[in-house]
Amino acid sequence: MQTVSAALDLLAHELRQVDRAILDKFESRSALLNLASRYLMQAGGKRVRAAMALLAARLLREPDRERALNVATAIEMVHAASLVHDDLIDDAEVRRGRPTVHSKWGGNVALMVGDYLFALASGQIAETADPRIIRSFARAVQRICEAELAPVTTVVPLRTALDQYYAKIGGKTAALFECAAEGGMIVGGGNEQQIAALRQYGYEVGLAFQIVDDVLDFTGDERVLGKPAGHDLGEGTITLPVIYAVDMGADAVVREAAEAISPSPELVAAAVAEVRRVCATKRAQTEAEALARSAIERLTSFPDSPAKDGLIELAEFIVRRRT
Questions:
Q1: Taking Cα atoms as reference points, which of 121, 118, 114 lies closest to residue 37?
Q2: Does any domain span residue 1?
Q3: Of 240, 247, 281, 310, whose CB has the highest number of CB atoms within 10 Å?
Q4: Domain containing 254: what range?
């Protein structure tokens, strides 16, 4: 299991427990469902959402470890389920450099794997026996589904494009980070004000995470990311660097690519070059860094501790990562 910093090494054992708990839950009578689910979970990942939940639970005191692990495990199950459904909707062939579940076994299997993981997560979170955490998970899944059906449809005017973009990533990505931090704080015995602070911390870190993802789509190493530059644009997804590039006076090729139903590889390549030329990725990256700083400010009232250091480093890692 890859952790993101020295401070988070204290979670290495718990994160391995999360992985084992997920794999142990695959007890379906369907051999194919088990095979596909295990294939998905063994693809790797940094488990940053699980780490956030575990750290939030430790901010005030040593928590009930079983309940904290239940939250962290359920978070990763929901995340995995959402990725399967997201790939299916987008008809994505590759995820983390490996064939996606639907490209390997077909859409019907992918749909069932995603549903199965959502069901497993529901059972896992029910074991916390706290209605507040159960409601938080229900809200997060609802927002993920709503965001999947709320695409960004325009790059102009700027305010409209930004409103659509933040509504999209607020549900698609930030909702689950918010749920992780909130659930951890509830397990850790926080009061309503403290729970609200962690909820906002998670939300802002989640926004920053997705913005960095969108920046990396233009600046990252294709060999590391497992997809070509401008992949999202080629799939018809309008992201923050594209919105900012148009606002910064980029050549019309960027807007043309954003508005095309199926832009050609040549058009996407030209748009990627133009987004880079006007430094729209730098503007988006700066916004992600501001969100991370704001998230860290939410932790000010909490006592100094390794868990607090870990949450700070987690937010900082999110905006400096390259994969």
A1: 114
A2: no
A3: 310
A4: 7-320
Give the total number of structural domains in the chain.
Answer: 1
Q: What is the dihedral of CA 71, 74, 53, 102, to 10 degrees?
A: 180
Q: What is the C-alpha to C-alpha distance for residues 189 and 89, in angstroms, rounded to an integer?
A: 39
State the Cα torsion 52-53-58-61 to the nearest 10°: 150
Backbone phi, then psi, for 153, in 5-degree steps?
Answer: -110, -5
Query: Between 48-57 and 175-187, two packed helices, what is the crossing angle to 10 degrees?
Result: 30
Q: What are the Cα distances from residue 97, in Å, to 43, 92, 233, 286?
A: 9, 11, 18, 28
**What is the Rg, in whole angstroms, of the alpha carbon atoms belonging to the chain?**
19
pLDDT in tens, the chain (323 residues): 444 555 566 788 888 888 888 888 877 778 888 888 878 777 767 789 999 999 999 999 888 889 999 999 999 999 989 988 888 887 778 776 788 888 888 888 889 888 989 999 999 999 988 999 999 999 999 999 999 889 999 999 999 999 999 999 999 999 999 999 999 999 999 999 999 999 999 999 999 999 999 999 999 776 555 567 788 999 889 999 999 999 999 999 999 999 998 899 999 999 999 999 999 999 999 999 999 999 999 999 999 999 999 999 999 999 998 77
